């Protein structure tokens, strides 16, 4: 059966030579091809693999011409199998049908991403020699301009790399699969991050730092628009970049040729009891032990989550992912049930925004067809209420987290300072986030709920003066906003509701 993505992706990923000086004929800038049905460019199918048309010279190309659709399709292919390409002369074509759909990952898969702290790196293109040596895949669209004297600057940030589980793939393995016809290399690894490239003629002033990465010291009189982008370079910030979706775009590939001959492990599996066969059995035993080790780390992550140690939880999940790198098991993948645990740990460690993104994706991956986004939003809200301890979340996130803490103090005794701190946070944010029609009742009816909960929290903590003060102040807000109408006596109302503290209503 023809794979449903075969034609669109194979077409989209065809990187065709234009520089004819290496392949015969005169170099030329490509004519604009027809747009896709989506309205996106087809230039990705017309980029140069190298001035010499020798793939061996360029086995780690930057991907400059892929648009968001191309990148998304590539990442889809990497979820369960390694990606194969035909890399010959000036052409690079992804063979998206090269897989065994009956046995996912039979030719290898990709390990969890190895995240790095990273920094913004620069590439200066001042001549055709620079272009072909540093950015050969950009020759199709930039070659004519560079030959005319225009200079370019590229900045990139590598937030992490993802490598294959196998160091080599053998030709005899892929020869058995009709969909692999023509494959010459596989993507052994790829770098994630972001990049931006533009002409230096558009950069005003002296460049002493990053132009597009938001780095201090870029003295210029106006912002410079990048002509080519992958991800959002300004979102990449140290080791936190690993949780920022806009700094996780594939930007560079590492390619390896298919090996001659047969996979020695496959040959050993068919052999009688020999040292090679015993070695294979040892690998199987090691795999079982790794899975057990992964479970140990996952259990430790849950313990640290329940203890309130978000950073420790993430560290244990990282170890679990390394021990069992199957695509459907790694906690950073939305399809994994462990993704929900990682999302909560991110929130607990102060990275609420990143945790919400992962939690929503996990819910979308596991919810039944037809579940509306409102239901998913409510589920994410329920986790935010419990876990979003940091300040990087939205004002709404911080508000509902504070409201939930005050509510906890109604039924479980908390220190008076606890009640006061979270009440003040909620009161500060209330006017900015409350909406009568909000899906969350704490946001829709905030002032009334907070008045009751805050006073009850303080009463249970044994602080009657604080209980009356917050009840009085919030009652005044309700009267001013006309939620409470007519004649109203806050002192009498407080005394009826909180008799134990009635004497404080002075």
What brief labels describe this structure?
alpha+beta, 8-stranded antiparallel sheet, elongated, disordered N terminus
SSE series:
HHHEEEEHHEHEEEHHHHHHHHHHHH
Low-confidence stretches: 1-53, 215-223
- Average pLDDT reading: 77
* Main beta sheet strand tally, sense and closure: 8 strands, antiparallel
Share of helical residues: 40-55%
Q: Measured on Cα atoms, how large is the radius of gyration?
A: 29 Å
Strand content: 5-15%
Backbone shape: elongated
Description:
With 506 residues, this protein is of the alpha+beta class. The protein has 18 helices and eight strands. Strands 1, 2, 3, 4, 5, 6, 7 and 8 form an eight-stranded antiparallel β-sheet that branches. Helix 8 packs antiparallel against helix 9 (310-323). Residues 1-53 and 215-223 have low confidence and may be disordered.
What's the arrangement of secondary structure elements?
Layout: H1 6-12, H2 20-23, H3 68-77, E1 84-88, E2 91-95, E3 114-115, E4 120-125, H4 128-134, H5 139-147, E5 152-163, H6 171-175, E6 185-199, E7 228-230, E8 249-257, H7 264-270, H8 275-306, H9 310-323, H10 338-348, H11 352-366, H12 373-387, H13 395-411, H14 416-433, H15 441-444, H16 446-460, H17 464-480, H18 490-497
Antiparallel strand pairs: 1-2, 1-6, 3-5, 4-5, 5-6, 6-7, 6-8
